[in-house]
Amino acid sequence: MAGTLTNPKKLKKGAIGTTTLKTMVNDERTKNKFKELLGNKAAGFLTSLINTTNGNKQLQEAEPQSILKAGAIAATLDLPIDPNLGFAYIVPYNNKGKNEAQFQLGYKGFIQLAIRTGQYKKINVTELYEGQFESYDPITDELKYNLDGKISDEVTHYIAYFQTTNGFEKYNVMSKEEVKEHAKKFSKTFLSRFSSWQTNFDSMAKKTVLKLLLSKFGILSIEMQTAQKVDQAVIKEIEPNGNVEVEYVDSPDGDNTNDIKEVETIDSEEETTENFDSEEIFLANMGALRETGGLKWKEKT
């Protein structure tokens, strides 16, 4: 049974968030809710959630509720959150002085969701190196390239492509510079040394070209619509009717200008107790993810 942690100020920085998350995960109600979503895979998923948090110092200092909510979304999409696999990530983000967990999909996650529809014959995303790209006609959607023409290890373009089972095919072609400009426009933390754009540019670039292609021309299954909505969002609330309130904390349209950085964790027993009180509501509402047959969305304003 979830309860209040004693003497929280005696715990070292980061310990309270980690301990609280473990308490939540070990609660039978949490286990049962995730089992409803994942069946026999629930235990392994929750273990992965703890391991992912333990392996990231900044994530240990994020609000445990936000970590659990991001995990619930990953469970709904049935995507692993092990960062080594590249399907989905739970990323710490300083949101107006409060460290929260942001849910992110990797390009492999988008491919996995597309494959599940059974409506794609081919789908891929890749890079082209200097000398390989020849031309692209956006009107006829014709791409010309020569893989044998590579003259250096410098990436010049990123290409996403799919062909559906009924024969429809589509490319999205972006130069490396175009990807950078897109990232600068839509990510406030693009230049941060902690940003995924700086630590893993190629993966973020591949995800960008693929996500844009699928959002405009792909098969928008319920899972794909969910993925497009929750990607790079902090999950604020999961309501009983299936509504999910999200906040795009990295979007320049918001007013959060903080960089990703370490922040102070909970240092009072009152705030720790509040985590457990809100867990009651969260666990009750989490069942709506399955009962409503899908998620409904409401962006935080």
Topology:
Blueprint: H1 15-26, H2 28-38, H3 42-54, H4 57-60, H5 64-77, E1 88-95, E2 98-105, H6 107-116, E3 120-129, E4 133-137, E5 142-145, E6 155-164, E7 169-175, H7 176-186, H8 196-199, H9 201-217, H10 222-230, E8 234-238, E9 243-247, H11 269-286, H12 288-291, E10 296-299
Parallel strand pairs: 9-10
Antiparallel strand pairs: 1-2, 3-6, 4-5, 6-7, 8-9
Helix pairs in contact: 1-3, 1-5, 2-3, 3-5, 5-11, 6-9
Characterization of the model:
The chain is globular and about 55 Å long. Strands 3-6-7 form a three-stranded antiparallel β-sheet. Strands 8-9-10 form a three-stranded mixed β-sheet. A two-stranded antiparallel sheet has the order 1-2. By secondary structure, the protein is α+β, with helices and mostly antiparallel strands. Helix 2 (28-38) packs across helix 3 (42-54), helix 3 crosses helix 5 and helix 6 runs parallel beside helix 9. The chain contains twelve helices and ten strands. A hairpin with a 2-residue loop joins strand 1 and strand 2 (98-105). Helices cover 42% and strands 22% of the residues.
